[in-house]
């Protein structure tokens, strides 16, 4: 590599060889030393101009005052912040107006404190320090040719020395032996996380599955309110609806997130339409829904078949159920089939009956899969 | 004993030498403080992201001191009376405590959330700047890729963080996320049940999200941001073309002192704005949403803005379900396309773009000079096409709110979104392309004929014409240099620069800012009379 020599005026700053400067020479000013130091990094300060041509000019004084004022404001707002933080009533109390202002006041005083620090520093830097224009050379294109060759040769030499080419068995054996090691590292990390989604048939059962009793019989699950109380047909008036949960321990909790169900009492004419459509079926279902209704009562899963939000907005006039998440709409009187939006599957219907004590029960679990769709849903 | 005299003035030098003897920092330090940075307002956008990230780290650390990442059921008995006695997860209860029973906790929570919104916003705007000015070209492709990764990792950070309080809204978001994972063919159910440790919602997801949100994702962010900055440092910043600026130099200010000072001030300003936002505008009032219950949702619940485009794409997607009739039958649900496939494209396409463009232009050169968007009409138009696509999706993400506010039917909004998504991007492309060409042509006209002076003259034959001030000497045509062409007389110094100052003019108005930071133009030796040319 050849070194280029620099012109003494430093204009040719392509070279990285600086003009030496004697830092102890009292005849050069400190700025000249700074310039020389910059030149060592290929930086030429081509323009350096104080903001105020005469020292102590009126503008300079005004700027100084402005910056000082900002710092004083920092102190003011900062103090205000601390005082408010300590003294302002902050605990939540019904109807306490003062406490509502606690967080806004903290934010505003803290924000103004930081803003004024920022403005003060910015103004100081931009308006009081000299303006400068410096030019620095770029050195694109990577390392010098010599270095590239040096590294390349060294690496190539090392590969030769390892001698995999001459001893192919070694390479093969190493590759074959090390391949499982990757799995060794991955196994404990990934393996512990993997969980079979089909354990207990969990994708296809909900809290409504009838419980097998010790004596061999099965108990049907009651429809209950959130507090666990069962529901009689008389509790829902015609045109009304109610969210119901399986009457099992924790049935309304998130442990049974796929079980919330919407029980709707249709008006008689709608009920007739719905029943007729139930008999017809949807064509998708491989089972009959003919006797799923109880009178004019119909119950559908509340968990949207699109992405699992609760489809909970019931429009009485049109008998549509709207899901608020992506606005899929399901027609209640026709097997809750999707009529608009991104959902592609009907809401599963819960077969209803009334037990000896007059309470609603589910005749069985949902026959269709509840909730968002997935690959292996039959 | 003789008293040793301590010369205070030599102390700093002495201390410096002591440090130097041990660590040898002077040489690298010289390089750093001498480093030249170009200046332009658009170069600050990335900094906003960086600074809000620092605010995020600081406020987030505070929040971890109080938050309890557990789904164990507890009964709330904190200060907030309306929820007292309600069963909820410990995560939600501790988030309420952070808001009501930790002094100043709410302002920290709100600052954290606002900083996240600002962070993501700054990333997007910064990336638009990079894209439209061609700053991603060789040698900076790697930094562009890191930038787009930062967006997606920031997205994950936002989502996991938003889910932690386990309130009514975040639970719904989590539910949708689980449905998105379920929809992936073949592995969907396995992936979901592995992440949730069983069926949704399970009992561990909050703890897992917590460690992801406070350790794994931030570590990744810090690592990528460090590399990002190191590369900016190593490759030196791009600059706009202008007098004295070439592809082989950087014209600007040295790192120390002015650049550093401005950065410090700017950081405080960004932090101040975040604090003001957090104080003045309530965000994510979790106490109003109640604990998450699978059967309850409130309408018009909007996710954070950077998630809305996915919400929009999900809403617009028609109900196209693919059934595969083998064996028991398999399904690809419609939600798979807008939430898995689309983001996949949106991740890969931008990352590959620098290479695609270089390939098409057969361009293997190193570029350190930025391009004005108008000078590369195809790229600018493509970018606007993407922006239009994104905006339609974002608006559709809030289409129920729009429908409600303006009394439009929801179905009409959905259809408008579907059609708009197909129609608006090409229109945006065409319009942008034409505008770019128009701007280009105007630049060339001014260079050829001069600046409009506003002086109307009447020719002897009665025609009117406007006097133009040519820019070159002797009516020569100037070549376009890739930078702003002065189009007003005061830009030429002919009328004197516009007065600056808010209440009163600042004494010495700045030089005509043909190109910020370049050496001021020497005043022309003789001022030429305004001449006409037409
Ligand atoms: S979750 Fe119901 S429409 Fe998407």
Automatic annotation (TrEMBL), chain A:
CDD domains noted in UniProt: Rieske (cd03467)
Family membership: Belongs to the Rieske iron-sulfur protein family.
Matches recorded under InterPro entries: QcrA_N (IPR045603), Rieske_2Fe-2S (IPR017941), Rieske_2Fe-2S_sf (IPR036922), Rieske_Fe-S_prot (IPR014349)
TM ranges: 67-90, 102-124, 169-194
Domain of life: Bacteria
Domain Rieske: 295-361
Mode of membrane association: Multi-pass membrane protein
Function: Iron-sulfur subunit of the cytochrome bc1 complex, an essential component of the respiratory electron transport chain required for ATP synthesis. The bc1 complex catalyzes the oxidation of menaquinol and the reduction of cytochrome c in the respiratory chain. The bc1 complex operates through a Q-cycle mechanism that couples electron transfer to generation of the proton gradient that drives ATP synthesis.
Region named Disordered: 1-23
Protein known as: Cytochrome bc1 complex Rieske iron-sulfur subunit
Subcellular location: Cell membrane
Stored Pfam families: QcrA_N, Rieske
Keywords assigned by UniProt, alphabetized: 2Fe-2S, Cell membrane, Disulfide bond, Electron transport, Iron, Iron-sulfur, Membrane, Metal-binding, Oxidoreductase, Respiratory chain, Transmembrane, Transmembrane helix, Transport
Skewed-composition ranges (Polar residues): 1-10
UniProtKB/TrEMBL annotation, chain B:
Organism: Asanoa iriomotensis
Record-linked PROSITE patterns: CYTB_NTER (PS51002)
Transmembrane regions listed in the UniProt entry: 48-67, 113-132, 144-164, 176-197, 209-233, 264-283, 335-356, 376-395, 415-433
Ranges annotated as biased composition (Basic and acidic residues): 524-534
Xref: InterPro entries: Cyt_b/b6_N, Cytb/b6-like_sf, Di-haem_cyt_TM
Keyword terms, alphabetized: Membrane, Transmembrane, Transmembrane helix
Start and end residues of each Cytochrome b/b6 N-terminal region profile domain: 15-241
EC code(s) of this entry: 7.1.1.8
Keyword Repeat: no
Superkingdom as given in the UniProt entry: Bacteria
Name recorded for this polypeptide: Cytochrome bc1 complex cytochrome b subunit
Enzyme class: translocase
Record field: catalytic activity: a quinol + 2 Fe(III)-[cytochrome c](out) = a quinone + 2 Fe(II)-[cytochrome c](out) + 2 H(+)(out)
Xref: Pfam families: Cytochrom_B_N_2
Region (Disordered): 510-534
SUPFAM superfamilies (alphabetical): Transmembrane di-heme cytochromes (SSF81342)
Cofactor(s) the record lists: heme
